[in-house]
Design a protein that fits this description.
By secondary structure, the chain is of the alpha+beta class. The chain is built from eight helices and ten strands. The strands form three sheets. Strands 1-2-8-7-6-5 form a six-stranded mixed sheet. A two-stranded antiparallel ribbon has the order 3-4. A two-stranded antiparallel ribbon has the order 9-10.
Length: about 280
C-alpha cells in the first residue's frame, strides 16, 4: 500500500490549512489519484491493522447494495459505523424516521430519483450493461443527486464510479468529492475493490484495476500526529480475498461468501473521527 502512504505524506507536506463544517480544521490537497492492480493482492491497509474493521466493511457494502438507508439493518449484524449521523435529533431535524440516513448510497444506487416519478436501479442496470456490451463507456453509477443532496446530514462523499473493460478484465474508477484520508479512505479502497471483484465475477470477467480519484483529500488536525506516525511505517505484503465462486447474482452475496486471507498488518493506530 505504498500508494496510500504516499498520499498521506503528500497531504502532510503539501497540504493547505482549511476550515471545515465540523470546526476541527484540516490540511488538504485538491486532486490525487491512486491505482491498485488487484492481481497483486487485495488493497487493505497494512501499516495499521484493519482486521477489526473487515466485518464492518463487508456488511456496509452489502447494505449499500441492498438499497437500505436505515442503520437498523446494520445493527442486525452489530455494525455501528453510521450511528453518529443518525441520532434522534438529526433525524427529527431532517424529518426522517429515527435511524434513517435519508437518500444516501443505498437509495441512490438502487432507486435513483430520475424525476417524473421514475426511479433507476443503477446497480442492476450497470451489471446488465456490462454483460451485454462490456466496452460501453456508459457503465456508470452516481450517488450524487442534486435534488436530494440537502436531504441528508452527510451528503455522499464517494459519489461517482465507472467500469472499464479491456481484454477480459474489468476495472473500476471511483471519483470521491470529499476524502477523510486517515479514517474513510481505507474503507473506500477496500469496499470498492471488493465491489469490483463481485461485479467481475457475476459478469464473467477478471478483476483488473481499482482507480481512486480524490478531489478534496484531507487530514483533520486532530489526526495529524497519528498520520505522521503511520507514514514512518513500512507496508507489508497485501492480503488476498477469496469470494465464493458459486454466487452469480450481484444481490445474492452474503458475508460468508468472503474470506480475508494472509493479512498480517502492523499494530493499530487510533484516529479521531471529525464530527
Amino acid at each position: 500500500m505504498r500508494q496510500y502512504l504516499e498520499l498521506v505524506d503528500h497531504i502532510l507536506t503539501k497540504g493547505e490549512r482549511k476550515s471545515d463544517p465540523q470546526g476541527v480544521g484540516n490540511i488538504a490537497v485538491c486532486g490525487y489519484q491512486m491505482r491498485f492492480d488487484l492481481s497483486k493482492g487485495f488493497p487493505l491497509i497494512t501499516t495499521r491493522s484493519m482486521r477489526g474493521s473487515w466485518k464492518a466493511m463487508v456488511y456496509e457494502l452489502l447494505w449499500f447494495l441492498s438499497g437500505s438507508t436505515n442503520i437498523k439493518d446494520l445493527h442486525k449484524n452489530n455494525v455501528h459505523l453510521w450511528d453518529i449521523w443518525a441520532t434522534k435529533e438529526i433525524c427529527e431535524k431532517l424529518g426522517l424516521e429515527e435511524g434513517d440516513l435519508g437518500p444516501i448510497y443505498g437509495k441512490q444506487w438502487r432507486a435513483f430519483d430520475g424525476g417524473g416519478g421514475i426511479t433507476v436501479d443503477q446497480i442492476k442496470n450497470v451489471v446488465e450493461g456490462i454483460k451485454k456490451n462490456p466496452d460501453s463507456r456508459r457503465h456508470i453509477v452516481t450517488s450524487w443527486n442534486p435534488r436530494e443532496a440537502d436531504m441528508v446530514f452527510v451528503a455522499p462523499c464517494h459519489c461517482f464510479f465507472q467500469f472499464f473493460h479491456s481484454n477480459g478484465k474489468l476495472s473500476l474508477h471511483l471519483f470521491q468529492r470529499s476524502a477523510d484520508v486517515p479514517v474513510g479512505v481505507p474503507f473506500n479502497i477496500a469496499e470498492y475493490s471488493l465491489l469490483l471483484m463481485m461485479v467481475a465475477q457475476v459478469t464473467g470477467l477478471q478483476a483488473g484495476e481499482f482507480v481512486h480519484t480524490l478531489s478534496d483529500a484531507h487530514i483533520y488536525l486532530n489526526q495529524v500526529e497519528a498520520a505522521k506516525e503511520q507514514v514512518t511505517r513500512t507496508s507489508k505484503a497485501l492480503p488476498r480475498v477469496r469470494i465464493n465462486p458459486d454466487v452469480k447474482d450481484i444481490f445474492s452475496f452474503t458475508f460468508d461468501d468472503f474470506t480475508l486471507e494472509e493479512y498480517d498488518p502492523l499494530p493499530s493506530i487510533k484516529y479521531e473521527v471529525a464530527l
